[in-house]
Amino acid sequence: MTVSADVWQPVGSLADLEVGDRKEVSLSNGKLILILRSESGYYACCADCPHQDTPLAEGSLDGDILTCPLHFWQWNVRTGEKVGIAELPLEMFELREDNGEWLVRA
Ligand code: FES
């Protein structure tokens, strides 16, 4: 039986992210995540759309609403909850700051 546990992994400084910016980060465990800065804060989610794996970095972020560029599914980045026509939630990861360096639990 294989047991995997999410661990806190460094993603560096996010000081260069402006509101509305997105940044893909490849973690040492092979996961690709997307870090976003919305009007309400910093969030981390899966990098690819849960519908057909479109890179969400190419989508748009308006307020706290992230929109996939392909079929326009939307989610609230505060919670990962689907909005509008989306049929699946967005996988979110915990994110925290430690002395200017950010860590994601994934
Ligand atoms: S691939 Fe993102 S909504 Fe279809």
Any overview of this molecule?
There is one protein chain. This protein is mostly beta strands and 106 residues long. The chain has a single domain, classed as Rieske [2Fe-2S] iron-sulphur domain (Rieske Iron-sulfur Protein, 3-layer Sandwich). Helix content is 0%, strand content 43%. The protein has strands at residues 8-12, 22-26, 32-38, 41-46, 60-62, 65-67, 74-76, 82-83, 92-98, 101-105. The strands form 2 sheets. Strands 1-10-9-4-3-2 form a 6-stranded antiparallel sheet, with no helix packed on it. A 4-stranded antiparallel sheet has the order 5-6-7-8, with no helix packed on it. β2 (22-26) and β3 (32-38) form a beta hairpin. The model has no long low-confidence stretch (mean pLDDT 94). FE2/S2 (inorganic) cluster binds at residues 49, 51-52, 54, 68, 70-71, 73. Pfam families: Rieske (PF00355). Residues 8-104 form the Rieske domain. Its cofactor is [2Fe-2S] cluster.
